[in-house]
Amino acid sequence: MLSNVISSSVDLHAAYGGVVPEIAARSHIEVIIPVIEQALTDANADWDGIDAIAVTQGPGLIGSLLIGALTARTLAITKHKPLIPVNHVLAHAYANFITSTPLPGYTLPKSAVGFPALSLIVSGGHSQIMLYKSHKDYNILGQTRDDAIGEAFDKVAKILGLPYPGGPSIDRAAQMGNPGAIKLPKAKLDSPYDFSFSGLKTAVLRAAQEMAGKDFTFPSYELPKALSEDQKNDLAASFQKTAIDTLADAMVKAEVEFSPKTILLAGGVAANQSLRNELSRRLKNPLLCPDIKLCTDNAAMIAAAAYFMKIPPADPYKLEVIPSL
Ligand code: KG4
Ligand code: ZN
User: Fold this and answer.
1) Which of 53, 68, 6, 36 is nearest to 322 (CA)?
2) Less Cβ crowding at N or C end of the chain, within 10 Å?
3) Beta bridge partners of 288
4) In this model, does residue 234 exceed pLDDT 80?
């Protein structure tokens, strides 16, 4: 990894408590060329030194995908480079395949990934367990039926009046709370590897209303004022523990059934230290986690996926984005 430039629009979305698709797309237009120029400068490279351009084809918000794909298509045509379309969710796991960099401030996995590899990909849009037999042969063992885990963190943070993005805010509040304070339900589904987090979010809402001494008609936007700091911390800690236990239960089952050589954690929620600790504690195999800067969305993981998966190039005049890929 010779460069990994990240420009985030998180601060622009914070005022709205969530991602606003049009704001995301507009800020992509503003920053995409400066980010590419910075990436070349950091890598001490010019276009002659670039072998190929990898780009996210999906899944994601259509406006943001279009800006990325149109820029990559234009560059592939004008700079005469192969254009490699990448699945964003699969690419998250490939952050674990980056094992060396001259860039300062990165802690990378020391051991190479062994197959079969079991992977937990947890982000704002996805929660899925994947089994990779090789770079080409993989399948989804299970996924969320409703909210992604990151989305649940973001929604619970909103209920508690904690700032966006909710994942890191819940994580901080949870350090000061008691994870055993409130008993919350774990969803039971017929497939052991599928998840459901929508009921957990509603259970937090009901518990918060009860702790505030109100009934279920009490509006959620009034809750942050009606709850004490201690109550919020306990709710955050209890939610985080239940969510993490749910993920860990499924991963422990999958490890027994599929006997992987390596376990990979990836996606924005992989930044959560309690999740890392709990998985390391309960799983027998080594757990590989990307550096925090490679957990949330980044370009290096897209390039790593294109490189290791040997994805064939697409026609730069025809490549279409697929928001629901
Ligand atoms: O992978 P990502 O950057 O974007 C998507 O592709 O969705 O993931 C963003 C998600 C957000 O929901 C955010 O709240 C969550 O990752 N997140 C965390 C933490 N840091 C970010 N969730 C839990 N604990 C964290 N420390
Ligand atoms: Zn992502």
Assistant:
1) 68
2) C
3) 264
4) yes
